[in-house]
Amino acid sequence: MAGILFIISAPSGSGKSTLVSEVRRLVQGLDFSISYTTRKPRGSEEDGREYHFTTREHFEQMIAADEFLEWAEVFGNYYGTALSALDLARKHGTDLLLDIDVQGALQVMHKMPEAVSIFILPPSPEVLERRLRNRSQAEGVANESVIGTRLSEARTELQKIDDYRYALVNDVLDQAAAEMRSIVLVARGDATPSDGKLAAQCLTAARSPRLESALASFGVTVAGV
Ligand code: ADP
Ligand code: 5GP
Question: What is the pLDDT of residue 147?
Fold first, then answer.
């Protein structure tokens, strides 16, 4: 397999992790790149599964040694994709999903313009707030200031949506998962005409009514392309 790189970005709480797990159940051969981060594990997260959790000192050593494809500081913590994640996917013969923020995504788009970029957005700020709140309650951490920061950050990240080839509105999980599956199949050249049609509706430039409505609810007016 050629080793296609999929860049996935979404405001925190949009349901990106949930959606990515669902898509990996639907299509084979999609590796998930495990990033390095200096943030602390959340809930049931385990070192080496969701992230490689590390210290600022070690992360800075990795930056100095040029070990990252991209890295960024997000919410006061470092996050980065190690080049070794690409080597591993190549070795496994799989495609690779990068779940990275907008700053990191722009770095990868610049270095690897052939990468397929997908922005996932929640249907509205109200739904995003509810999901953030539910998640923090489920994890036993109720932190209002974190929820506030993430909501305002979401608006800023949404301004970059036109840099991404595809935009998925994660309202109904099954629908968003079917759309993402069709994007993967199109990139692989394995799509049926109906997969192709579904993926084409998700092109950011196509400005589907769902996308327009989600952007309007966040008060985001971006020019379109
Ligand atoms: P992210 O990875 O984008 O930060 P998560 O996958 O952790 O977000 O999802 C945030 C919360 O929203 C979780 O509680 C998850 O169960 C819920 N969620 C995700 N997708 C949907 C959806 N389509 N409909 C309803 N709830 C969802
Ligand atoms: P969280 O702490 O909620 O898991 O992630 C916070 C943000 O960091 C999300 O937007 C996520 O996409 C981003 N992120 C996770 N890993 C990486 C990475 O390796 N590089 C970059 N640039 N961002 C990342």
Answer: 86
The overall pTM is greater than 0.70: yes
**Residue whose pair of structure tokens reads 């690897």 in the numeric block:** 112
Ligand 1 lined by 159 (C-beta under 6 Å): no
CATH number at residue 193: 3.40.50.300
Phi, then psi, of 162 in degrees rounded to 5: -75, -10
What's the pLDDT tens digit per position in 134-159? 887 776 666 778 888 889 989 999 99
Low-confidence ranges of the chain (pLDDT < 50): 1
Judge contact between 81 and 33, C-beta under 8 A: yes
| 170 residue type, one letter | N
Range of the domain at 15: 5-33+94-217
Interatomic CA distance for residues 82 and 108, integer angstroms = 12
Query: Is the residue at 110 inside a domain?
Result: yes
Measured in whole angstroms, the distance separating CA 66 from the mean position of its chain's CA atoms is: 23
pLDDT score of 1: 40
- Which of 46, 86, 99, 111, when mutated, tests ligand 2's pocket best, judged by the most ligand atoms within 8 Å of its CB? 99
